[in-house]
Amino acid sequence: MYDHLDFTVIENNLGKLSKRKKERIERTVRLGKSVLYVPDFEIPASMKCHYLNNFAVWTDLNDNNKIIKIFANHRARKENRDSENFEIKKPLRMNDKAGAHVLGRRMGRVITKTEILNCLANGIHVKNFSKKQRHNAPDYVFYDRYYFFDDVGVVASETNSYINVRTLYRTTAIADYGFLEIMPDLVKALKLNKDSYSQFRIINNTGRLKYLESKEHQQMQIVSSTIHGQNPYIQGDKLKSFFEKIKMSGELDKLTLAVIEKRVQCNDVEYTYTLNGDDHLSIKEFNIKLGQNYAIEFVFEVTNNNKLSTDQEEALIDYGLILEKYPHDISFYNKKVNNKTVYFAKIKFDMSTFSAAENPWAIRRKNNKNILD
């Protein structure tokens, strides 16, 4: 809720804000990246700027609850995002040291050159001027700016002739340390209503591929397809006889146990967070294994079997999971629950899309020792 925020200043300038606008401001201040706003190097900073999903909120430097002004970036359109021609007001320049640093950030945070240029050409920019005193020389003024577009932030210094890119990062939680710690908030935000189902999962893609290539998986697939009548040579009475024989002999139980053991051996184990607490392996027990590729998956109720609600889409975007920007697998299905048809969405993201091998998303802020060699 936004009841703790003071909208007096901004409503004096813009008039009364809608409930939806106030909710967006609250989300931006709570979830967004914040930077100092310094429009004049001769005057001390008096405001901070909070940024989230092409929306900026300026607050009092000493009180985040006091809202001063807001700005929505109307250049954040699909045609700008997909463009290959960007109009940047000055040439870009980097020395060798800065270039190596920026390249490292690009690779570690999986940020493309196109994203950087788009950010500089179409992003919100926040002034952060500063002055450095020098011995026996005039003070040196840094004309710094933070540029923001979608989930990318670029820090640049501007001269009369050039823009010097100094560093870059992602502005959303998905690539940050501590992402796992805030998953309960996102799972809750994806709920269709207070009683609906919502779950987060961590999947080891490397382990799953190993398991899918195993003989245990192949044997289970053959047995399962036969039991479900998909083997054209075993039908009718032969199928009934096959099922009774495999059940009475205990072979099905042995195969099921072998499958479980093989999945554990391959590290094909899912860790989950479910709002009702029904988790066999909780994300609190998750330890990332270096050299493994991971995916995250969300399963939650929707109003029908082919569409997310606006609030659910916005919740994903706020945390950096932008469906129209990043590759993902999405499917919809329904099942009977207490004689009622309930619709679900399942969305899966490969985490290599957001971070390189160090997987910062999986490193907890409170305990950074959850990495296994």
Task: Please sum up the structure shown.
By secondary structure, the protein is α+β, with helices and mostly antiparallel strands. The protein has helices at 8-14, 19-31, 78-81, 96-109, 113-122, 183-189, 205-212, 215-227, 236-249, 251-265, 310-318, and strands at 33-37, 47-51, 55-60, 63-72, 92-93, 124-127, 130-134, 137-142, 144-149, 152-158, 163-170, 198-204, 271-274, 288-289, 294-302, 329-337, 340-350, 371-372.
How does the SSE layout of this entry go?
Elements: H1 8-14, H2 19-31, E1 33-37, E2 47-51, E3 55-60, E4 63-72, H3 78-81, E5 92-93, H4 96-109, H5 113-122, E6 124-127, E7 130-134, E8 137-142, E9 144-149, E10 152-158, E11 163-170, H6 183-189, E12 198-204, H7 205-212, H8 215-227, H9 236-249, H10 251-265, E13 271-274, E14 288-289, E15 294-302, H11 310-318, E16 329-337, E17 340-350, E18 371-372
Parallel strand pairs: 5-11, 14-18
Antiparallel strand pairs: 1-2, 2-3, 3-4, 6-9, 7-8, 9-10, 10-11, 12-13, 12-15, 15-17, 16-17
Helix pairs in contact: 8-10
Description:
The protein is α+β, with helices and mostly antiparallel strands and 373 residues long. Helices cover 31% and strands 29% of the residues. It has a five-stranded mixed beta sheet with strand order 5-11-10-9-6. A hairpin with a 2-residue loop joins β16 (329-337) and β17. The protein starts with 7 loop residues before the first helix and ends with a strand.
